[in-house]
């Protein structure tokens, strides 16, 4: 089934305009969600908005939005005033510059959208994708939609283009806020740690080799519950947070990593093919 477009936009650089459609790059419905249920009668629970002063339920038509400019003090805005505050939705991906691919830190990445050509834009769309791939650059652009202005990257992906929504610098926290103790790493420890990394190294990342095992376990338990089975929590040992000898731990890890490939190879050798069954003559 073909993907459904989320929105339409126009990529603009120089005097070139490329009509495109935005598509979601991920399936958010994969998450297992639970509803709040009244235990007595099995009905869904409805949320109500309560006044913090009186404790009374507030009807929707009496609710307005406000900005807290001082502790406990709010300036109120009407829907018309809120509209005036919002960025005008131009739906234009306005390219400002082209930077080397990989020059933007991964911490800036927020969301990813696939871009597809809209009517009349296929040729220019393919041209931009090829030019970015040829120059090994990505486009930095501004995109106004949903009342906000977004900082985005347009980059080549497979035979087309993708748009990455970025965080603004002021939205990010500094890594300097993370407390890190200054300790000395011994050369022999680094050597063993490097060996351990190399033993488990792969040339490419294969996402198909990873599955959401927790999600599948939850779905299996839900099915058992649907079938009338009681679900009980299996006791697990609490992880021990104790100081260990790093050298001994690295040596044991290396030895364990060496044993695993040997066991796997031996297992493959011991697999015997069953003789093919003879067909009866008829």
What integer value in Å does the Rg equal?
Answer: 29 Å
Low-confidence stretches: 271-282
Q: Give the helices and strands as they follow along the chain.
A: EEEEHEEHEEEHHH
- Structural class by sheet pairing and helices: alpha+beta
Q: Helical element count?
A: 5
- The name of the CATH topology of the domain at 7-26 and 87-171 is Ku70, Chain: A, Domain 2
- The helix content is 25-40%
CATH class of the domain at 7-26 and 87-171: Mainly Beta
**CA(first)-CA(last) distance:** 46 Å
What does this structure look like?
- The structure is a single chain.
- This protein has a domain at about 5-25 and about 85-170: Ku70, Chain: A, Domain 2, CATH 2.40.290.
- The chain is built from five helices and nine strands, in the order E-E-E-E-H-E-E-H-E-E-E-H-H-H.
- The protein has helices spanning about 80-85, 120-135, 185-200, 215-225, 245-270, and strands at about 5-15, 15-25, 65-70, 75, 90-100, 110-115, 135-145, 150-155, 160-165.
- The radius of gyration is 29 Å and the shape is extended.
- About 10% of the residues are buried.
- Residues about 270-280 have low confidence and may be disordered.
């Amino acid at each position: 089934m073909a993907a459904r477009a989320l929105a339409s936009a126009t990529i603009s650089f120089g005097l070139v305009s490329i009509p495109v459609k935005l598509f979601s790059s991920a399936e958010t419905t994969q998450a297992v969600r639970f509803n709040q249920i009244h235990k007595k009668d099995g009905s869904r629970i409805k949320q109500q908005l309560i006044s913090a002063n009186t404790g009374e339920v507030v009807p929707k038509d009496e609710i307005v939005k406000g900005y807290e400019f001082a502790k406990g003090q709010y300036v109120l805005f009407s829907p018309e005033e809120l509209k005036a505050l919002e960025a005008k939705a131009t739906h234009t991906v306005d390219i400002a510059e082209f930077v080397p691919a990989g020059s933007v830190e991964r911490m800036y990445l927020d969301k990813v959208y696939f871009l597809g050509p809209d009517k009349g834009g296929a040729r220019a769309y393919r041209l931009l994708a090829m030019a970015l791939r040829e120059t090994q650059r990505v486009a930095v652009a501004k995109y106004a939609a949903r009342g906000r202005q977004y900082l985005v990257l347009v980059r080549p992906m497979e035979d087309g283009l993708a748009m990455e929504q970025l965080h603004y610098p002021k939205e990010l926290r500094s890594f300097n806020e993370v407390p890190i103790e200054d300790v000395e790493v011994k050369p022999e420890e680094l050597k063993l740690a490097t060996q351990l990394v190399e033993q488990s190294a792969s040339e490419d990342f294969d996402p198909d080799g990873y599955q959401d095992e927790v999600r599948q376990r939850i779905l299996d338990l839900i099915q058992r519950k649907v079938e009338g089975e009681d679900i009980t929590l299996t006791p697990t040992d609490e992880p021990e947070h104790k100081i260990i000898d790093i050298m001994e731990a690295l040596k044991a890890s290396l030895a364990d990593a060496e044993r695993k490939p040997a066991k796997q190879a031996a297992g493959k050798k011991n697999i015997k093919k069953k003789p093919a069954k003879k067909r009866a003559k008829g």
